[in-house]
Specification:
Blueprint (H helix, E strand, L loop, with lengths): L1 E7 L7 H16 L5 E8 L5 E7 L2 H17 L11 E6 L3 E3 L2 E3 L1
Antiparallel strand pairs: 1-3, 1-4, 2-3, 5-6
């Protein structure tokens, strides 16, 4: 399994509610239909920072989710709300624990 973390900085804090709503209504439904999708999480931090974490079966699928997310920002005309490109980190999940099950 592969994870991607996107860290968005400099977010227009007056638009976080709009961003959250659009993620739930248009990004997440389409992202979750992509091959290999496992989960998506959006985190709101302080000072205009939000991060998303998604999990896919393969690195190719995770890379495609990055391209899709960038296109989604443009299609939804969110460049002013998200003025800086995200800092993207990704890689293979090497330890995982969910629902009481451990994988190492």
């Amino acid at each position: 399994m592969h994870a991607t973390i996107r860290r968005y900085e400099g977010i227009d804090q007056g638009r976080t509610e709009e961003l959250t709503k659009k993620v739930g209504e248009s990004l997440l439904p389409r992202l979750s239909e992509m091959p290999g999708f496992k989960s998506y999480h959006l985190i709101e931090a302080d000072n205009g920072v939000m991060s998303s974490i998604d999990f896919f079966d393969t690195s190719v699928q995770a890379d495609e989710s990055n391209r899709f997310a960038a296109t989604w920002v443009r299609d939804e005309k969110l460049e002013t709300a998200l003025p800086n490109p995200p800092k993207v980190t990704g890689g293979e999940v090497i330890v995982e624990r969910t629902n009481g099950l451990a994988r190492v």
